[in-house]
Amino acid sequence: MSNKTLAILKPDCVEKNLIGEVILKITGAGFKIKALKMVRLSEASSGGFYEVHKERPFYKNLVEYMTSGACVPIALEKENAVADFRKLIGATDPSKADEGTIRKLFADSIERNIVHGSDSDENAAKEIAHFFSRKELLDNFSE
Ligand code: CMP
What is the DSSP letter of 133? Predict the structure, then answer.
């Protein structure tokens, strides 16, 4: 079990001015912010990040959408981080998400679903490395 996960506050979260509210939900649930930045993804970076979905019909739109505005990747630490964060954000499709989850509260659609969360410990490590250099993480993360 890992204690790390990657969140991305997606362009709809930034556009709707919800960065503060969503971060409050995350820290209120016991997650510690270990690294954070605001970035505008290039097509190559967005495509690479979602490479696992390359063959899916929604891939092109997803990559386009993720480059459409700024987003906020955040490296988080908590015991059981991956599973606990996915519980906090709710189902990918907000109409199927549990009451009180971040997606249920704030998201409009499966595509514009406010926030990303890593789906496994292995992917969490890869995804954190996608956005943060070792130097950015070294001082912050307990190894
Ligand atoms: P995320 O958790 O970032 O992981 C992959 C993303 O692809 C997902 O959130 C959604 O934004 C998007 N996605 C997944 N399934 C669909 C779908 N059926 N239609 C459109 N977008 C999808």
Answer: -
